[in-house]
Structures are given as C-alpha cells and as structure tokens.
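Appendix C. Worked example: Hydroxymethylpyrimidine/phosphomethylpyrimidine kinase
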Amino acid sequence: MSYLPLAPPGTTPLRVLAIAGSDSGGGAGMQADVRTCALLGVHALCAVTAVTVQNSVGVRGFHKVPGNVIAAQIEVVCHDIGLQAAKTGMLASAEIIETVADSWRTHGPDAPLVVDPVCASMHGDPLLDSGGLETLRAELFPLATLVTPNLHEVRLLVDIEVVDSDSQRDAARALHALGPQWALVKGGHLQGSVTSTDLLFDGTDFHEFESPRVDTVHDHGAGDTLAAATACALAHGYAVPDAVAFAKGWVTECLRASYPLGHGHGPVSPLFRLGT
Ligand code: PXL
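Step 2, the predicted output written as structure tokens:
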C-alpha cells in the first residue's frame, strides 16, 4: 500500500487535532491517535478530554478534564499553530461534548472534522455518561464531516441492530439524517464473515469498503486508528471516500502488526512502518 506524502525534514508537516481521552495502557485513545499521526508523517495536536485509568484487561475509571481546560487547549492550538483536520474520540460527558462543539464552532478552521462516537471500551466499560448520546446527536453530529460508529454505537445512537447489508444501509441512512456530511457504519463487529465491510453514505451514494478480517484478539485502538488515519488523509486533501479507503487499508495493516500486551487485549500497531 502507498502511504501519505511526507514533509521534507525541517519543514512543518500537516497538523491534525485529536480531541480524545488518554489511555494509561497506551493502546487506544489519544495515544493511538498520536501514534497514527506520527507514523503517517502528520503532526498531532492534542486536546485531552479525560484521563482513563486502564490496562489491557479493562478501564478502572476515568477523570474528566474541566471544560474550560478542554476549550483552552482547542483555542490555543487553533490560533497559533493551525490545523488541516480534526477528530474526536472519547468525550466522556454531555457537558464536554457541548464544550467541544462550542469550541469547534468558535475557533475551529474550515477543516474536516471526524467524529468517532466513542461510548464504551472493548470490554464494555462505559466511556460516555448517560445523557452524552443525545448531545452527540444534537450538537456534534451536525458539525461532522464524517461519523464513524461501530455496530454497538450504531445501536445506541439510532436503535438499529445491524445484522446484514440491508440493516447496515438502514443504519447509514438514519445516522446521516442526524446531520453529518457522511456516515460510516463499520462492519468489523459483524459475526461470521471472512471479510469486514464498512459502509459509507453521503445521503445519495453508498460506498462499500471490504477488507480481509484479521484474526486477532489484539485489536485495542482499531476504531481510534481508523478515525485518526482518515483525518490524516483528509488533512492531505483526500475526498472522504478516498480517505476512508486509505484508512481501512492502514488499520488492516496495523491489525496484522498488533502485539500482545499485559494479560488482555494488545493494541493495533503502526510500528511496522519503522521497518525491521
Ligand atoms: O477505542 C475507544 C477508546 C477511545 N478512547 C479511550 C479509550 C478507548 C477504549 O478503550 O480508552 C481513552
């Protein structure tokens, strides 16, 4: 696969702002976003929304960053450094979602925004307070260039159980009706197929992205990695379907390169890009 063009050494690379939670285990969240951006040659700007206490077996809890501190992180980097795309991950609460939406409306450039509507960890530990879902739908989705829910998040957001390609299309329509320019329904959690198909919809056309299913339990951070890689490609000026196709290829390679860590699920890894 070919990757994104790199800025020559000593010149300023493109920037992606990650608005996300920290994962103390270093697998998902902000750490996955920063790793993805770095290995794709993009400079990651970071607005931390929450600090999770977790390892490879689960999330023990999290501490929310005060809204004014989140807003200030977004404001200062937008004003001084500038950015070509942004992505959101764990936002923890309705109040934080409102803060992020306000900050993006006020300080965000006219740049693509990828919203990964993180609701829970892979172990089922909640990463968003109850009440957060409605604010995600009402405040952040209408600002999004692209939303990237997995099937669990689809069920929570639009109350559709995706079991086949028809229900995947219904879900894409329902998500798009909430206001994003594009909705991507990730099929990775659909059981029993040798491929994983993600479905992208802009209100008119459906695009399908199929990749071989990588048989591994070490898939922590896969969703974050897909959204971050999409944001990097968008920062480079890719059209949304091309950015998603790029990111899907990237996350498949990162799944193949994932590694065991601790006693539970290890992370997807972009470190293969460093060579051997
Ligand atoms: O992968 C979703 C995710 C996002 N952000 C943080 C997480 C997780 C999953 O555990 O911990 C901080």
